[in-house]
Amino acid sequence: MKDPAFLKDLDDKQLSGVAEDIRGFLIDKLSVTGGHLGPNLGVVELTLVLHQLYNSPKDKFLFDVGHQSYVHKILTGRAGQFDTLRQHKGLCGFPKRSESIHDAWETGHSSTSLSGAMGMTLARDLKGTDEHIIPIIGDGALTGGMALEALNHIGHEQRDMTVILNDNEMSIAPNVGALHNMLGRMRTAGKYQKAKDDLEMLIKKVPAFGGRLAASAERVKDSLKYLLVSGMFFEELGFTYLGPVDGHDIADLKSNIRYAKKTKGPIIIHVVTKKGKGYAPAENDAKGTWHGLGPYKIESGEVVKKPGPPSYSGVFAETMKTMARNDKRIVAVTPAMPNGSGLDKFALEFPERMFDVGIAEQHATTMSAGLATQGMKPVLAIYSTFLQRGYDQLVHDVCRQNLNVVFAIDRAGLVGADGETHQGVFDISYMRHLPNIKLMAPKDENEFQHMLYTAVQYDDGPIAVRYPRGGGLGVTMDETLHSLPIGKWETETEGKDAAILAFGTMIPVARQAAELLAKKGIKAEVVNARSLKPLDGDKLEALADKQIPILTLEEHALLGGFGSSILEYFHENAYHSVVVERMGIPDWYIEHGGVPDLLEEIGLTAENAARTVQNMVPIKQQRA
Fold first, then answer.
1. Fewer beta carbons within 10 angstroms: which end of the chain, N or C?
2. Maximum separation of any 2 CA atoms in the chain, in Å
C-alpha cells in the first residue's frame, strides 16, 4: 500500500478483506514492537471508509489523540516501517507532519483536534478553497474542556466541517463523567436522523391546509429529537447529528459519511466502535491494558514482561495505601490515568477516596485546591507533560493560595517511545519560579517512598515530587516511612577536585562519571541534589568556598532548569568566581526512541560528564 487512492476501486466486500488483512498485520507487528494496539484495531473500517470517500492529502484528517492513526499510516505508504515503530529514528507512534504529507495535524495530548480543525476550516474559507476538514475525536478526548470550547465555537460559526466522534467507551482507562454517560444513552437511542428524515417526507405528502401543518412541522421534528436522543447535546450546539453508526459496518459508515458530505454546516457523525476489535484479548480488556503495551504472545495474549525491580508507579500506589490507612485526610486525584499512575490499586482499597476526573487536567488541579481548603490532603497523580495543561490553575488556584496540594509528577524526564509530546522535561522550568511551591526528585525507589511521605506530612503549602517512568534500581526498601529534610542534599561520594550535582535518574550517571574521573586521578564529589526548590544553600556555599569546579546534570531542559537555578544562586549571593558547567536537555524537542539511545544522542552520558569535568579541572590537579 503506497497510496490510499487504490481504495476507491474496491467494493464493500473487498474493503472488508483489506480490513482483516490490516488487523492481522497490526496484531503481528505490534506483538514484537509493542504500541497502541486496542485503539487501532477499533478504527480499521472507519479509516478505510474515510480514505475511500475523501481525498487525502487534499482533504485533512486530524486524529485525536493520534495513537489511533496506525491504520492511516499503513494506507499512506508506511507499512514497511512498522518494524521500527516507536523506536529511535523509526516510525512515530503519532501523526507527524514531517513524516508524511497525509499527516495534517500532530497530536499526542488529547482534545486538540477540533480547535485545529476550526483553524484549518477558517483558513480554507478565507482562501476560497474546497477541501474537507475531518477531525476524528474519541469519546474520551471529547471530555477535555478544550474540545467543548471548540464545539461551542464551531457550532456558532456554522462552517462546513465533519466531526467523527469515535465512541469506544474508553480513552486509556474506562471513561468517566456525565458526558460519557450521555453518549451511552445516545448509543441506545436509535438513528435519530433517519427518523427525522422519514417524518419530513411524510409531512410533504400531506396536503398543506392554511399553512398550519407546515408551520408546526419543525416543532414536531424538534420534539422528535428529544424523544429519540436524550438531550441532543450536539444539535443544541448547532451541529447536525448523525448516528449512532456501527463503526464496523462499512455500508452504514459509507451512507452516513456521504450524507454528511452533502449537508451544509458542521456535522457530527457518532461512530460506535469496539476497542481491540478482532483480537479477543484486546476486545475483552476492561482495564485499558491493551490500549498501549509492550510485546506480547499472539496465541495467548500474554504480555511479555521482563523481570526487574518494582516500577515507580507501583511504589507510588503501595506508599499511598500505607499512608492512607493512617491519615484519613489523604485523597487521590487523577485525570484519566488510574492505571498508568497506579491509583487503580489504591482505588481497590479506598474507592471513596480516589477521584478519576477524566481528561480534565485543569479541573483536576483546581478541584485538588478546593479539597485542600477544607483540610483534606489531595495527592494529584499526573504526568509531567499533562500538568502543562493545568498550568494556570497551578499558578492561580494552588500556589497563589498556598494550598496543601501534593503533586505526584509521574513520567518526569525522558519517557522514550511516546516521543516529543510525552517527554517530561519542562516541569522544573515551569514550576520552580512559582512562589510557595517546593519541588523534590528521588534518586531511587526507596528515597521515593520517603519523599512521598515527606510531601504528605508537609503542611505549609504546595509540594511536588517528580519521578521517572519505569522500574526502580532494585535497592532495598525500608519498612518504615520517615520524613526527609526539605532543602537539604546528601553527599553520595566525597571529592576535593570537582563536584557533580545531580538528582533522580542522573545520580547513577554522576557516580559512573566519578569512577571514570578517579581513574584519571580526579576526585569528584557527587551530590544528590534531591531538593530542587529550595536549594541547599549551605552546601552550595561550602562548595563555593572550596573553589572547585561544579558540573550540574539533569534529565530536564537546560533553559530554566536545575543548572540555571545554581547559576542564579551563585549570582544572587555574589559568588562570581565559581566555575559551573551544565549538562541536560538541549533546546529542541526530543523525539521517540529508547531512553539510552536518546541520552546517547544528546550526549547526556557518564563519559561526556567525565570529559566535561576533566576539562574544567586545572592540569596541575590531574594526576596519573
1. C
2. 108
**CA gap 75, 265 in Å, rounded:** 29
Q: Please check whether residue 56 is in contact with residue 103, taking contact to mean a CB–CB distance below 8 angstroms.
A: no
Q: Which of 182, 90, 86, 188 is nearest to 142 (CA)?
A: 182
**For residues 284-299, average pLDDT:** 92
How many whole angstroms separate alpha carbon 345 and alpha carbon 341? 9
User: What residues contact residue 439 under an 8 Å CB cut-off, 6+ apart?
Assistant: 428, 431, 432, 463, 464, 466, 531, 532, 533
Q: Exposure string (b/e) for 117-144, b if CB count within 10 Å is 16 or more? A: bbebbeebeeeeeebbbbbbbbbbbbbb
Query: SS3 for 527?
Result: strand
Indicate the pairing of strand 463-466 with strand 438-440: parallel
The band of 205, judged by pLDDT with boundaries at 50, 70 and 90, is low
Q: Strands 377-383, 240-246: parallel, antiparallel or unpaired by DSSP?
A: unpaired
Rounded to whole angstroms, how far apart are CA atoms 469 and 594?
12
The strand pair at 490-493 and 524-528 is best described as: antiparallel
Over residues 344-367, mean pLDDT: 97
| Residues 6 or more apart whose Cβ sits within 8 Å of residue 201 | none
The catalytic residue positions are: 275, 361, 389
Q: Which residues contact 6 (CB under 8 A, 6 or more apart)?
A: none
pLDDT at 214: 47
Residue recorded with cell 499558578: 395
In this structure, are residues 60 and 120 in contact, taking their beta carbons and an 8 Å threshold?
yes
The C-alpha cell of 238 is what?
448547532
